[in-house]
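Internal ticket #5521
Category: modeling
Description: The requester needs a full-assembly model to guide mutagenesis choices. All entity lines are attached below as received. Residue total reported by intake: 557.
Assigned to: D.W.
Attached entities:
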Amino acid sequence: MSNLKQIQEEIVDEFALFDDWMQRYEYMIELGKSLPIIDASKKTDNNIIKGCQSRVWLHADLNEDKVVYSADSDAIITKGIIALLIRVFSNQHPDDIIGADTKFIDEIGLKEHLSPTRANGLVSMINQIKNYAIVYKTQLS
Amino acid sequence: MANKQSLDTTLSFPVEKIKKDFPILQREVNGHPLVYFDNAATSQTPQQVIDVIADYYQNYNANIHRGVHTLSQIATDAYEQAREKIRAHFNANKSYEIIFTAGTTHAINLVANGYTSLLSKEDEVLVSALEHHSNIVPWQIMCEKTGATLKVIPMLENGELDMLAFDQLLSNKTKLVFVNHVSNALGTINPIEEIIKKAHQVGAKVLIDGAQAAPHIQADVQALDVDFYTVSAHKMCGPTGVGVLYGKEELLNLMPPYQGGGEMIAEVSFEKTTYAGLPHKFEAGTPNICGGIAFGAALDYMHSIGFDNIATYENELLVYATEKLSEIEGTRIFGTSTDKKTAVISFNFEGIHPYDAGTILDKLGIAVRTGHHCAQPIMDFYAIPGTIRASFAFYNTKAEIDLMINALKKAKMMLS
């Protein structure tokens, strides 16, 4: 299993292959479409993060000493970004998750989707990813 | 509003000349010429108004109503002239029935606060299902404080109010009715004449939120016999942070002050303060002086084009956009027919989230609003997460609508 930093670098390298925004977005849309990223039974009101623009569901489990995330959104571009976030954060140790940043999203030209004013649920989702990591860290210690 | 015989309008309406008045419309966004279709949120500002704002700060910026010095006098005169322009525009009886506020939301809160001391728990108030959150939440707070009951006038599938239900909800217990003149999410023009008349028959007062109507329809508050009417300057080519509450003199006098401070007092001592008369009783503190003056200039600008010409031309844009949009497969338009609404189209494509479509449109330089438009009850009614809303102004063109249609087709292709 690659570490969190390596995965972020991989994603940045992948996006460097794209010439323009349309290719980037088409890739995001494909990611959003192709990944079954949450079990339907986990799309509960408890797991929902409401944004003005789109909604996000997030669930987390502990598998040995790693946090496993699953998530979904009703908007496909949001879902594409979620797929990237899951790829980076899922199956990682809580300490690595707590210490990580999301600068790679800026580097691949999708910064605007993580703006707090965008209200698509993603900023709250990242906070929630970290909150789960903090909770599971205390369970581990 | 509707003018079905206006085939020549787009030829005779000098839109290309008008467009040049708006510097922002010359810019590019994401490498594309800006197509600005979010006018229902904020309209753009013509150079004529920008010049007035600059002139204020360059030549006569001063506090008003209390200085004996020259600049203060000039600023006071300009501010009061703007109030008079606004009075004339809405045909209010007295200029002191025009209260400057920070906008419509502030104006509604002012009335809600005033009525908090005038209502009791037996009273009922009616709010329409088509409202913006700012014409819902202040009344909920008022009802929590007074114990009065908030009842909802339901909406119909076509985006119009259920007037039969309204008749049944009205009773001698009804003290206040709140309805927007035009729905921000759907553009529906509500039958406010009928609502006001019927509400008055049971002794209820009516507040009409005119924020979405004012850029398109010149309301005559005396002819309507409306009790309160609220508008925001930033939706009618003026600056943000300024608006107006119109209220009938006797009702404004009944309400206690909203905020305490300078400007709103007659005399102050630690034993007792007496309040100033209208409009100053409701205008505590230094107001948005430049904003008020610029609001007056924005009205001058809109009158130089003419509200009737604006309405006719915008309806032409609405009809054209509706036709073009309906040709795209899977389009669902929310709201009533084009002759019963202002130049707003709220729509979705089957299987496509409005956020996704709005994101792609932005990349192509097209500004539309997506989401619930601060009108969640309407979205709940249709059981949708939100809509794409294109709202037109008199400086938009059919060529821009074509650009949006092409961009939507592209977005649809990418997202399907």
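Resolution: model delivered.
Comment from assignee: The mean pLDDT of chain A is 87.
Ticket closed.
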